[in-house]
Design brief:
The longest helix has 29 residues. This protein has eight helices and no strands. Helix 2 runs antiparallel to helix 3 and helix 6 runs antiparallel to helix 7.
């Protein structure tokens, strides 16, 4: 499948998933079908890379996307499976951490990314903390730490010195964009669930989520 057609199908599935999230009753099947389908189609981008420059990187990204698909299914079920979904995405981020840290060394880029994402994570948790039910505080805190760590490593790959090769730089840019979009998506999801709701929550959460996964998949070279 040509890249333009592939990307068009992914966009179509993502749009259907977002539209389906606003439907009720029998129309809900559209969301249940399109949401995991879009994630799997994005994962296929990484799967179809032939002779990847970093085979371990691709395996870790694919594992993260399959776990993300499991999280998609848990979060869309007509029952409260938020914790299983949280665990699935936590494991997915651990896979992304394994991918992004491969070959990365400590330096100014890692320090700067840690300060930036650490400050954002602390402010986010402080804002959410009064709204979190007591049983959810530790799981959410653990998830925030893992999510922020994933984004730190992705940004550090982008900011590392000496500058990476052209191939590595392209991969790093996609990974950094995907990580930051993931932070945005999960932050919006948390504020929608625990902070009293957000207008157009499904549109905001899913559009940033699919953009994040697409960018991470494109980082496989």
């Amino acid at each position: 499948m040509k890249p333009r057609i592939r990307d068009g199908v992914i966009v179509l599935m993502a749009v259907l998933a977002i539209l389906g999230a606003y439907l009720q009753g029998d129309g809900r099947w559209l969301h249940w079908l399109a949401k995991p389908a879009a994630t799997l189609l994005i994962a296929a981008i990484a799967w179809r890379v032939r002779a990847p420059a970093q085979p371990f990187y691709r395996r870790a990204v694919l594992a993260g996307m399959l776990l993300s698909c499991m999280g998609d299914i848990a979060l869309m079920l007509p029952l409260d499976a938020f914790v299983p979904g949280l665990v699935a995405f936590l494991l997915a981020h651990l896979c992304y951490i394994a991918a992004f840290r491969d070959g990365l060394r400590a330096g100014r880029g890692l320090f700067a990314a840690s300060v930036l994402l650490g400050a954002f994570a602390v402010l986010n948790v402080l804002g959410l903390w009064p709204h979190l039910p007591a049983p959810m505080r530790i799981p959410v805190l653990a998830y925030v730490v893992v999510l922020a760590s994933m984004a730190v490593l992705a940004l550090a790959r982008q900011w590392r010195r000496p500058a990476p090769t052209a191939l590595e730089a392209g991969s790093a840019r996609w990974a950094a964009a995907g990580a930051l979009l993931f932070v945005a998506s999960d932050s919006l999801l948390a504020w929608d669930r625990f902070g009293g709701g957000l207008p157009l929550a499904s549109l905001l959460v899913l559009s940033t989520y699919y953009s994040a996964q697409y960018a991470i998949a494109r980082s496989v070279r």
